[in-house]
Specification:
4 strands, 4-stranded antiparallel sheet, 15% helix, alpha+beta
Length: 46
């Protein structure tokens, strides 16, 4: 079965989620946080 990944670049925070084997879950990001301030994600993407 395939996995699906979604990235939410909201106004204040960002998060990444997947649907794996039909079950949704959020991926831990920096420091095991489930969300990061939007400005941090922009810096990490450079």
């Amino acid at each position: 079965m395939h996995s699906v990944c979604g990235i939410d670049f909201a106004t204040s925070n960002a998060t990444i989620g997947v649907i794996d084997d039909g079950q949704p879950r959020l991926l831990p990001l920096e420091g095991d946080e489930l969300t990061l301030p939007r400005s941090s994600v922009s810096l990490l993407a450079k």
